[in-house]
Amino acid sequence: MEYNTIENFLPQSMQDYIEYYMLNTVYGFMDEGSGQQDDFDKNNKNIIYSPQLVHPIFDNETGPMDNIFAEICKPILWFFEKETGLILTEVSRIKANMLININSSENQYNPPHVDTSDKNSYSMVYYVNESDGDTRIFNKYAHQGYNDLELIYSNSPKKGNALLFKSNRYHASSNPIKYNKRNIINFVFKAEKK
User: What's CA 94's distance to the chain center, in Å?
Assistant: First the structure.
């Protein structure tokens, strides 16, 4: 599995609950470039730094950080297992990110990065709300470096959908252009076939 869009895998009422809850959650402001990966191809003129709102939910060292883990994230993961046939063996990190419209162009995206260099980990981006601001998947993995990345897949945010890919693959978010905000929940975990 290189990357896979999982369409509409949650019941509509659950999608609506998640959207309401997550859009009314308190987020911390991460300023432009603050805490973002500094290792990226400085020659790529499509890369921009964008401010981002972040809400940590789970970390494998500290555990759940608030009730969003039990109320929202665990059920998402249960539906994920049912839909994909993968069984989670370890959750490394879960966080919610919100990007806002900053008048960027369709060709621009935030710095490509990997969620972890562990080749046995997966990342899943769950799209909380209907928006634009594609998630972009690139041709290289962590061990291959970040220079001269080629875009191989672009996934548009659609409420209730998720994008699954290997965590060590370079990927990037992009800001919404037609909508005011793009809200996602990012999961990083290990899983095995049922």
Answer: 9
**pTM of the full structure:** 0.93
Domain of 8 in residue numbering reads as 3-193
Q: What is the CATH number of the domain that holds 29?
A: 2.60.120.620
Integer angstrom CA distances of residue 136 from 23, 73, 83, 182: 23, 23, 23, 14
- Taking each helix axis as running N to C, give the angle between helix 12-23 and helix 74-84, from 0 to 180 degrees, rounded to the nearest 10: 140
Strands (E), the chain: 3-6, 28-30, 52-59, 63-64, 86-100, 121-127, 135-141, 151-155, 162-166, 169-172, 181-193
CA distance 156 to 115: 19
Chain segment 63-106, per-residue pLDDT in tens: 999 999 999 999 999 999 999 999 999 999 999 999 999 999 99
Domain count, the chain: 1
φ and ψ of 32, to 5 deg: -45, 115
Per-residue tokens: 91? 């959750």
Residue 118 φ then ψ, to 5°: -70, 115
